Queue: 2 jobs
Job 1
Amino acid sequence: MSDEATPGFDPRRFKALERAGFNRIAARYADGAHLRAELADALLAAAGLAPGQRVLDLASGPGLLALRAAALVQPEGEVLATDIAEGMLAEGARRHPHASGLHFAAADAEHLCLADGSVDRVLAGLALFMFPHPEQALAEIRRVLAPGGSVTLSVWAERDAVPLIACAQACIARLLPAPKVARPSVFRFGAPEVLEALLRQAGFDTVHIQACDFTCRFDSAEDYWQAFLDLAGGAAESLARLPEATQQALRAEVGAELESFRSGNGAGYTLPARALVATARRAP
Ligand SMILES: C[S@@+](CC[C@H](N)C(=O)[O-])C[C@H]1O[C@@H](n2cnc3c(N)ncnc32)[C@H](O)[C@@H]1O
């Protein structure tokens, strides 16, 4: 998404809000990782990591993919986990102080301070849609990849396939005034053909995309809402600044919205989600 396409959109303010939000939720994001375990498994399986590789985990959050990648590239391989939110990285470093071959460094995905051709694999879980200039982040990924190297990333699929996120967003849209400046949609690369075109335009020659479907179970509507807040950095930051009465109204709205997702036995809720996992290669 270019700044010109959305009048008034300020990428620096947007990034600052995301950074503040993810710093705010760092520990809870790490605690909620089990909800997306199947997606992490699918991404790592697609990445084809092997011992000795140099890996960059971009927008790594608390280093969940990076930690597992580090085990896969041992011995001698190295993983660098980078993120714009230093609190996320600090959380990962605090939880895994002795992981060998795992390093953390704060970095904006659109401006990587790595040498050309210096990594064999790039991972980027649930991140591309957050970058104001995804094409610039992909150019940076391609630049730092060695020829023949590849990036494996995940993005949310189209809105209708992701009630896990869409339910919360629908409640927010109903109760709160529309934002003065539209945020880029987290579903904007959810159509496989859109994602493939973006990757090819960035110069990647081989592109494979597969869907990953999974479900998340919540005992209560409150648990669902908290899990949403623990995943959505910028939204969590904006919502935390609202008056308590508005936050309460949102929680009540979520309870009604979730009715159609009651689990079969009537206890709790089951929310489906679909993500796309894409692997794209830099030509040898
Ligand atoms: C949904 S989390 C995904 C974390 C991790 N990759 C995973 O799969 O669990 C998105 C991450 O992107 C980071 N992020 C957002 N904008 C970024 C940017 N411009 N550069 C680097 N990281 C960014 C956030 O701080 C957050 O940690």
Note: Residues 19 and 70 are 25 Å apart (CA to CA).
Job 2
Amino acid sequence: MRSFIVEKKHKLSDIKYDHFGTQVTNTKTEYCCRGLIVTSCFLFVCASAVICVALYQNGMWGNSHISDISGSLQSRVAERVISCYYNMPSEHATDELMPSGINPNLCTHINLAFAQVVSNEIRLEPHQYRTIIEMVKLKHTNPDLKILVSVGGAGTDKGFPDMVLNHKSRKTFIKSVKYLLRNHSLDGIDLDWEFPALHNALGGGRERQHFSQLLREIRMEYIREKRDYILTVAAAAPQAIVDVSYDVDQLNMYVDYVNIMTYDFHSFTKYTPFTGLNSPLYQRSTEQLYLATLNINYTIHLYLDKGLDRNKIIVGIPTYGHTFSLVNVDNHQVNSPASGFGSLGSLGFINFPDVCAFVTNTENVTITRDNEAKVSYLYKNKEWVSYEDPQSVMEKAKFIIENKLGGAMIYSLNADDYKGECRGAVARAGVAGFPLAKIVSKTLKSHISSSEQNMSLVQRRGH
Ligand SMILES: *[C@@H]1O[C@H](CO)[C@@H](O)[C@H](O)[C@H]1NC(C)=O
Ligand SMILES: *[C@@H]1O[C@H](CO)[C@@H](O)[C@H](O)[C@H]1NC(C)=O
Ligand SMILES: *[C@@H]1O[C@H](CO)[C@@H](O)[C@H](O)[C@H]1NC(C)=O
Ligand SMILES: *[C@@H]1O[C@H](CO)[C@@H](O)[C@H](O)[C@H]1NC(C)=O
């Protein structure tokens, strides 16, 4: 019962917040709740009132109003978010993943990566507009699919510092976003600034506040427009960045959900010349202090402690891995000395099909599972690779379910085995095409517990 009430509290705050998104139903709900709170009633009384008002508004158990209700929050309760990044093909793509190659039912949200900020406006290349048009056609098959444009991305987010600086430049940006969404029938934007206040020593202190202001102003513009557009942020995982870059309470107030980039915890750099796991779920017992914070579990609890609602937490799951070159072939544990990137993949990154091909085509590759971090790594001679396999992504999906989080973010569709070529030791029988994304998607979709189903019933009517 206790947890039931706690759950209710989350729902109520959502409903209140969502009220700003235009619904008359919600306005009444809001008044009702405020009145009750003023007369100091209990949360569950208020929750009952929400149900009553909503039932009254929508007709007993009728669902005729569901479709015209702010899409994201409601659908997030009915089903978890599966937010997939898709790197748009280059201009003269020949052998790249094209929109027509994406199963429209695999993800609930697709983030088209990446648009840039140029002269304070959102900017895409002409060939990227063609991709957007192709992508939006997937809605013919799955009308519930949401398509967002992701702005920024690692190393390509140069326009953010100038744009957020003052109200006028933010306004220019927001206007350009509005046109983009409207002109192309898109569902929202995802801001992927890596990272506010981190690089800019002078303006740094204010960048965090300016970013919060930007989020607020975008939300207000959506409301003014009476649109149920989606606003999300791709946010950092390491605490050192989270502390500097975000006002998490503001994120919580203005975004629909946060795609937390819980990967790249370890990769080869000259400052970290050691083997390590890209996306460990839990701490390993030999890890102390700072190293003990570099895992998904720690990051998710950090965001929870900072006040991000559970259902706004979208856990990043990579489909790519990191490669290392061992200094000593006999020293092949996690945290062994490395001299550089491995020779597989490219610049230390490796896509899942390349991992698969290596294991299938090479003799005597050793695969080791780290039972604490719940991920695998492999080695052969000097090659050392941290990667995700069907089991590790399944563990991550289960973590999302156990912790009642909002869903999974997958980076990226391109790095998964979208052609379905993977066979052998790291594959799983009968899963062809996007095996990793598919396992995450199936696991999350099949695990809506009965209490959650009841909640979603309440939630739908609450809107
Ligand atoms: C959107 O359409 C308007 C006219 O309807 C046009 O002025 C504007 O340039 C378009 N913007 C984009 C980003 O396509
Ligand atoms: C997950 O993180 C929480 C909070 O930091 C901690 O209490 C818990 O022990 C962690 N779980 C594991 C399995 O490490
Ligand atoms: C693989 O291991 C076996 C047994 O240790 C050995 O006989 C064989 O030569 C190895 N093959 C390669 C290609 O290293
Ligand atoms: C969910 O609702 C069903 C019937 O509506 C009920 O039998 C079940 O006990 C409820 N579950 C929870 C956890 O409230």
Note: Residues 2-69 form one domain.
